Amino acid sequence: MKHVINNKETNIDWQQGELIERHDSGCSVYHVTGIDDELAEYTCVGDYQSGELFDVTEIELADETL
Q: From CA 14, how far away is CA 48, in angstroms rounded?
């Protein structure tokens, strides 16, 4: 999934982690981890619908919030 981080476009390969919340609509919220093309590690909160990641928020790199 492509993102703009610090004014630079990067592709992050996200992996679903621990479930945070499940909604009646079929949407689920998970902690998600990922690695970009330069091997930098990220965490975020990811929204999944029908098992597919469709949105991420609260992206963090190491100990910094972006």
A: 12
